[in-house]
Amino acid sequence: MQGLTRRTRGWAVITGLVLLVSACSPTSPPDVAISPGSSAQQGANAAPVTCRTSLDDELRRLKVPGLSVGIVKHGRLVCTGVAGQADVRENRPVTPDTLFIQASVTKTVTATALMRLHDQGKFRLDDDINNYLPFPVRNPNCRQKPITFRQLLTHTSSIKDFPDMGLLPTEQLLPQDSDIPLTDYLKSWLTPEGRNYDAGEVFHKDCPGEDYDYSNMGFVLAGELAQRIGGKGLDDLAREEIFTPLGMKETSYFRRSLDQNRMAMPFDRTSSGFQALGHYGEPNWPDGMLRTSVPQLARFLLMFMGDGEYDGRRILSASTVAEMRKVQFPKLSKEQGLAWYYRNFEGRRHVLGHVGEDHGASSYMFFDPNDGSGVILLANGNWYKREESPAADKLASALFREAATY
User: What range(s) does the Beta-lactamase-related domain occupy (predicted)?
Assistant: First the structure.
């Protein structure tokens, strides 16, 4: 396996980075320049302005080809900012509407699609997932103990992030959307008759609900459950239940549904410069292959910040959002809600969101429930796997500081 796993980027890496930033005094001089500007609150329907936080220097510090950011507050997207190239080869610049791979931020959308079905009374969080699957999934070390929806969404299912998961080797990336049915993919790994099954590689010795371990496969399984319960493909389900109501017209798990000319080309950084990876796909797409833009992702974030409602459209009940925000198993993890997780950030307690990394993609989406501000950062390169990670957190800190002026 090459590079970091999504488990690493989703948990271990960000832990160290956020603690590093948290150690800095909130009153210390900014590490990222913020230009002077009006602090007056804009009207609720006003178009976003250009963020004042300087991005050109940050692009160089992050060592990514292109960058798109946004700040949400007062129930709307207040500003956007861009820098760099969506495709270095074509000299095509990033715009606010450029579509980026979301990597593990995708998990918050997959969880929302599933919880939409929960709102409709189609399952309960503590149900045995085997009651909804066409194939059984059991940890062979604890055959009598079921895996539940709650455990899948909190990385406590005992399903490992095993070798072929996480950040796939470059040679395993697909040149198109995966045509492998999720059912077949999951059966090959999670059932004894599967060709890739290895009990020791797939399951922990600890039983479901006994330990926390970030699991991409758990969210692929959550995506399959959404399909089975919803009676249609996850992308169609998410489009009908989330994207269309929220006005996210160019958001999809599959590149075939999007305008390639608006997609950021993923790039890997080598000693000789940026190398284009092509618009790839992955068979484990429900855990990381969503593509969207900052303004569209902002609508999704604002929905969650608004207790499940945005612009008069209710996606989730307020009680379901409250449950998703709740730390589910504090003895196992003091931060993990349902898909979303908490972090202390620059003196802020309980900033909630997710990060992500994949080949040629980095993402960051967090909000502060106390003051109603949130930030989004998207890039078509990797900042988590090298020394650039602190620069990403410093940029997010600057955006949170700017948010305080709106």
Answer: 61-392
Contacts of 192 by beta carbon, 8 Å cutoff, 6+ apart? 140, 199
Alpha-carbon distance values, 272 to 269, 352, 357 (Å): 8, 37, 22
Q: pLDDT, tens digit, for every residue of 129-160?
A: 999 999 999 999 999 999 999 999 999 999 99
pLDDT digits (tens, 9 = 90+) for 288-328: 999 999 999 999 999 999 999 999 999 999 999 999 999 99
Separation in Å, CA 114 to CA 10, 107, 156, 333: 20, 11, 17, 22
Q: Does pLDDT of 264 surpass 50?
A: yes
Write the CB contacts of 32 (distance below 8 Å, at least 6 apart in sequence).
Answer: 53, 54, 57, 58, 394, 395, 397, 398
Using CA atoms, how far apart are residues 124 and 382, in angstroms rounded to an integer? Answer: 37
Please state the rounded mean pLDDT for residues 362-385. Answer: 93
pTM of the model: 0.89
| Domain 13-123+233-403 listed as CATH 3.40.50.300 | no
Q: Which amino acid is residue 16, in one-letter code?
A: G
Q: In angstroms, what CA-CA distances link 283 with 153, 184, 217, 253?
A: 19, 10, 11, 11
Identify the bridge partners of residue 343 per DSSP, sorted by sequence position. Answer: 351
CA torsion sign, 209 to 168 to 13 to 73? negative
Nearest to 6 by CA among 289, 209, 255: 289
First to last CA, the chain: 44
Q: Are 269 and 382 in contact (CB under 8 A)?
A: yes
d(CA 152, CA 66): 33
What is the token pair recorded at 102? 């979301």
What lies within 8 Å, CB to CB, of 266 at 6+ separation is 101, 276, 277, 278, 279, 280, 358, 359, 360, 361, 380, 381
